[in-house]
Amino acid sequence: MKNLILIILNLIINYISKLIYLYELKCEYIIRYILNKETYKNKEIKYYRTDKIILINNGNVGLPSHPYHIVDQSPWPITLSGVLLSLTISAVLSFQGYIMGELFLLCSFILLIWGMSLWFKDIITEASYLGAHTDKVQKGISLGVVLFIISEIFFFLSIFWAYFHSSLAPAIEIGSEWPPKGIEAVNASEVPTANTTILLSSGSSVTVSHHSLVDRLISWANYGSIATITMAFLFTGLQVLEYFGVSYTITDSVFGSTFFMGTGLI
Q1: Dist CA 117 CA 124 (whole Å)
Q2: pLDDT of 220-260, one tens digit each?
Q3: Within 13 Å and on the Cβ side, how many CA atoms surround 220?
């Protein structure tokens, strides 16, 4: 059984390695063609249209005859799926206090950042150098972002629903009072007010950065981005201090669950 598992893992690793090699080789070929396209300006170029592609001078440069992006085979989905599985398992091991659990969690997190960087690099290459993100593709991406935002709205709605359902009519299991007996709530005029102010200010600064970038005001766009990132670190730091300062955990009744879900995910 052990040998069978090793053989399967070896086959998976070899398959992923071949996909990565072929994908990088194809990207390198296409980028070289694009970077050297200046040499074709003074030459006569003939186009031969087929059902699927346009052949240039009988070359092997395929130009799609439709506005959609047919994604090529990529090693990153299956690779990052394995990394996310490893991240989940290592996080559970770390939370349960197993030996080397924190080390496995750190390694999984580093692999996740590495895989995301390479995947984003390929997406940027397809959009910037290959011209794969046409108007149709951009509309599809925008629609996907809109659907994601709608799903997030309903997700946050469920958290607020749980909070108001438990606070406006406390159940007898938590003593029919809110906050439950034995739990000292956070003073809303301290860290929560400061973090709310920082969060709203960061939204303003990133909006300034966006509009400055659209208007080609690069310096203002950089200032807005730096201000947004600075406030993000400040917000995270204050949130961590608040978590260490409270006297309850996420397992302390519905109050702890809604508090950490509402402040951590929202």
Answers
A1: 10
A2: 999 999 999 999 999 989 888 888 888 888 878 888 888 88
A3: 13
pLDDT in tens, 77-128: 888 999 999 999 998 888 888 888 888 889 898 999 998 998 988 888 888 8
Main-chain dihedrals φ then ψ at residue 25, nearest 5 degrees:
-65, -40
Order the strands of the 63-64 sheet from edge to edge.
Answer: 47-49, 53-56, 63-64
* b/e per residue 196-222 (b: at least 16 CB within 10 A): eebeeebeebbebbeebeeeeeeeebe
CA-to-CA separations, 53 to 37, 41, 147, 190, in angstroms, rounded: 18, 21, 32, 63
Kind plus residue range of the DSSP H or E element containing 148: helix 135-168
pTM: 0.58
Distance CA 212, CA 215 (A): 5
In the chain, domain spans: 2-35+69-132, 187-245
